[in-house]
Specification:
heterodimer, A: 2 domains, 14 helices, globular, MetI-like (chain A)
């Protein structure tokens, strides 16, 4: 058990290292001088030279990469060119919006998908099953940001029930914060729920034909007790796997949905950094998002071990 | 062919996808009016009135015409991106299946790493340097598709390499390249075709997202994503501007996903569509 854990941790760090190298290479080897890109066409040669020196662009690539890496390890992600503040602080500030948003979306999508998938599997080929199937087809096809726009039209513009966007900050109170994140989270959760419903239905169907579920029924358990206590825990592994695989899309969705709702999250930070040509912020945010995906997949790997005790011995 | 009519999912998917392609192609030769033609007098007219089938936008441009040209822009970008990603990824997959060993380890790790950077973010990184536009969108989507197809073809090809007839081909002295071309590729092509269809849907969604952020084709080329972005200012007066392009995206993705699922059932009965 411990050796598996150590091996996975080592693999996690190697992957993170390679991703950082990849992002650094892309951001630094592409044609174009970061200093010139940041300052625009009107910059004088003197300002350009000063910024190049400030960014350390005169140093060799390898030295710059190692310096960036050393900074990362110490929590120093560099200085934002446009905001004039440390990037680490910027990311932390934005994370308190993006993280709760993503969490709410994950919770909502699981809360919709698992009961729906289980119910559809138990009534295979019934009308309910077909309706659930249609739901997942449609929700996978609609872009999250469009769902966001429709929610704003319906509940903000027409009915006036919800704020159309913006975030009051957690200082305004938990309720105000959660209300501001509710519609964005629904928009983000819907496509995920569609994917997860399909996976939950398929895997429950597979497990329901297993001997242990038949045994559970034979010993007198009710139908729903057999499903919820025996079939579902075994059917959860594919659902958790899919949740991990979908994380990349959740993040991509968050970048878009944050822009629809004007939420000051990480996705919006990346977008603003692009508009302002703030290369350092871009580099750090992209690395942060990618690291999040990698760590998430690592946690999913570990979650298997908790869901399925058999893996503790064999993995 | 009879199989198509016995499978409603495949049939619906086929009809929707073909209609979409037909509309996109039609837009190259005909649209109700010029999609870039402004007519301020007729601005923000609702659908099914003097503003035409789908109404007009804030500049009085015909929404139906813009949607048609948008279909071409969205489909051509997505098709190109998936074609590049599928060719490169499948090539990597079959080569790795042929060589195995450390190459497999490196390529699979590489796939994990590429997979960790969402295409929206790689498009942003590329956009910062080479500027945003169709080329950036295609490259960003294609890069993300490579690991998808590399993983799929590697897994599928490995199964074929274990078959008896491949062992027999090795036994009579056929080269690995010949075996790959004669036995492996024809046997995994169905799975690649199914995956291409499904990934096309994903590419359309991503392209729409990139255009929404202003990272797709530049104006005045209409794209579904940018039409949605532009609609945000006119929610109260003209909600149809936000509804129509979104419906077009959803319909396109729905059609392609259904086509992919239907094809999977038709071509590969062993795999379940879930």
């Amino acid at each position: 058990m411990i050796s598996i854990f150590i091996r996975r941790i080592v693999s996690l760090f190697v992957t993170l290292l390679v991703v950082s190298l990849l992002i650094f290479t892309v951001m630094n080897l592409l044609p174009g001088d970061p200093a010139a890109i940041m300052l625009g066409t009107s910059a004088t040669p003197e300002t350009l030279a000063a910024l190049r020196a400030q960014l350390g662009l005169d140093e060799p690539l390898a030295v710059r990469y190692l310096a960036w890496l050393a900074g990362l390890v110490q929590g120093d992600l560099g200085q934002s060119y446009t905001y004039g503040v440390p990037v680490a602080g910027l990311i932390a500030e934005r994370l308190v919006v993006t993280l709760p948003l993503a969490l709410m979306a994950v919770v909502m999508s699981v809360a919709i998908a698992v009961p729906l998938g289980v119910a559809a599997a138990r009534r295979q080929n019934s009308l309910f099953d077909h309706v659930a199937g249609a739901f997942s087809y449609v929700s996978i096809a609609v872009p999250a940001f469009w769902v966001g726009l429709l929610l704003v039209i319906a509940f903000s513009t027409k009915l006036g029930w919800m704020p159309a966007g913006g975030f009051p900050g957690w200082d305004a109170g938990l309720w105000a914060g959660l209300t501001a994140l509710l519609m964005p989270a629904i928009a983000l959760a819907l496509p995920q729920a569609g994917v997860l419903t399909r996976v939950a239905r398929t895997s429950v169907l597979e497990v329901m034909n297993e001997d242990f579920v038949r045994t559970a029924r034979a010993k007198g358990l009710s139908d729903s007790a057999a499903v919820w206590r025996h079939a579902l825990p075994n059917a959860l592994i594919p659902v958790v796997t899919m949740l991990g695989m979908q994380f990349t899309f959740l993040i991509a969705g968050a970048v878009l949905v944050e822009n629809v709702f004007n939420l000051p999250g990480l996705g919006r930070l990346a977008y603003q950094a692009l508009a302002q040509r703030d290369i350092i912020v871009m580099q750090d945010v992209v690395l942060f998002f990618s690291a999040l995906v990698i760590v998430m997949n690592f946690l999913v790997d570990l979650a298997y071990v908790f869901i399925d005790p058999r893996l503790r011995v064999t993995a | 062919m009879a199989g198509v009519f016995r499978r409603p999912v495949l049939l619906i998917g086929l009809v929707v996808s073909l209609t979409l392609i037909a509309v996109a192609l039609l837009s190259l030769v005909w649209t109700p009016s010029l999609p870039s033609k402004m007519n301020i007098v007729q601005r923000l007219k609702p659908p099914l009135g003097p503003g035409g089938l789908f109404g007009t936008d804030q500049f009085g441009r015909d929404v139906a015409s813009m949607l048609m040209v948008g279909a071409w822009n969205s489909l051509s970008t997505s098709f190109l991106a998936v074609a590049i990603g599928a060719s490169l990824g499948s090539a990597v997959g079959v080569i790795v299946a042929m060589r195995r060993g450390w190459l497999e380890l490196i390529v699979m790790r590489g796939c994990d790493i590429i997979f960790a950077v969402p295409p929206i973010l790689s498009a942003m990184m590329l956009g910062a340097f080479i500027g945003s536009g169709r080329f950036t969108a295609i490259i960003a989507i294609a890069v993300f598709m490579v690991p998808v197809f590399a993983r799929l073809t590697l897994a599928a090809a490995r199964q074929i390499w274990a078959r008896d007839y491949v062992t027999a081909a090795i036994g009579i002295g056929r080269s690995k390249t010949t075996i790959t071309l004669v036995h492996i590729l024809p046997n995994i092509s169905n799975q690649i075709i199914v995956q291409v269809t499904i990934q096309l849907g994903l590419a359309i969604l991503t392209e729409a997202g990139l255009s929404f952020l202003g990272l797709g084709m530049p104006p005045p080329n209409p794209t579904w994503g940018r039409m949605l972005a532009d609609s945000q200012t006119f929610f109260a007066q003209a909600p149809w501007l936000a509804i129509m392009p979104g419906l077009a995206i959803a319909l396109a993705v729905l059609g392609l996903n259904m086509l992919g699922d239907g094809l999977r059932d038709l071509l590969d009965p062993k795999m379940k569509s879930g």
